[in-house]
Amino acid sequence: MADNWVNADYVAVKALENGVTIIGLTRGKDTRFHHSEKLDKGEIMIAQFTEHTSAIKIRGKVEVLTRFGIIRNDDLLG
Predict the structure, then answer these.
(1) Which run of H or of E encompasses 57?
(2) Number of other CB atoms surrounding residue 11 within 10 Å
(3) What H or E segment, with its residue span, contains residue 75?
(4) Cα dihedral: 23, 11, 59, 51 (round 10)
(5) End-to-end distance of the chain based on CA atoms, in angstroms?
(6) In this predicted structure, what is the pLDDT of residue 76?
(7) Ramachandran angles phi, psi of 40, nearest 5°
(8) CA–CA separation, 3 vs 37, rounded Å?
(9) What is the pLDDT of residue 1?
(10) Superfamily grouping for domain 2-77
(11) Is the distance from CB of 58 to CB of 74 less than 8 angstroms?
(12) Nearest 5°: CA angle at 8, between 46 and 16?
């Protein structure tokens, strides 16, 4: 079963400020938090959507790189 997730999408999250929080959310009937990380300015985390992770929630100013392009939320936060 794990082999099916080898080619799953990755995202890279670059913190644009200290104290950025990244929270992994589970798949299944009930969505739950299953993992969290804190990043400081300039740190980068690469995450993969897997059998257990269906979404991520990000708090703080970041730049997210995906196969669809780059998303920056610092422009949106004001």
Answers:
(1) strand 53-59
(2) 18
(3) helix 74-77
(4) -20
(5) 43
(6) 59
(7) -105, 165
(8) 25
(9) 45
(10) TRAP-like (2.60.40.50)
(11) no
(12) 25
Degrees, nearest 5: CA angle 62-67-71: 25
pLDDT of residue 12: 94
Residue with tokens 């690469």: 46
Whole-number Cα distances in Å, 51 to 1, 12, 24, 25, 77: 9, 18, 12, 11, 32
pLDDT score recorded for residue 2:
52
Chunk the chain into consecutive blocks of 10 residues (it has 78) and report each block's average pLDDT, rounded to whole numbers: 62 95 83 86 90 84 92 71
Contact 15, 21 (CB under 8 A): no
Residue 20, strand partner residues? 39
Lookup result for tokens 């099916």: 4
Q: Which two tokens stand for residue 42?
A: 């300039």
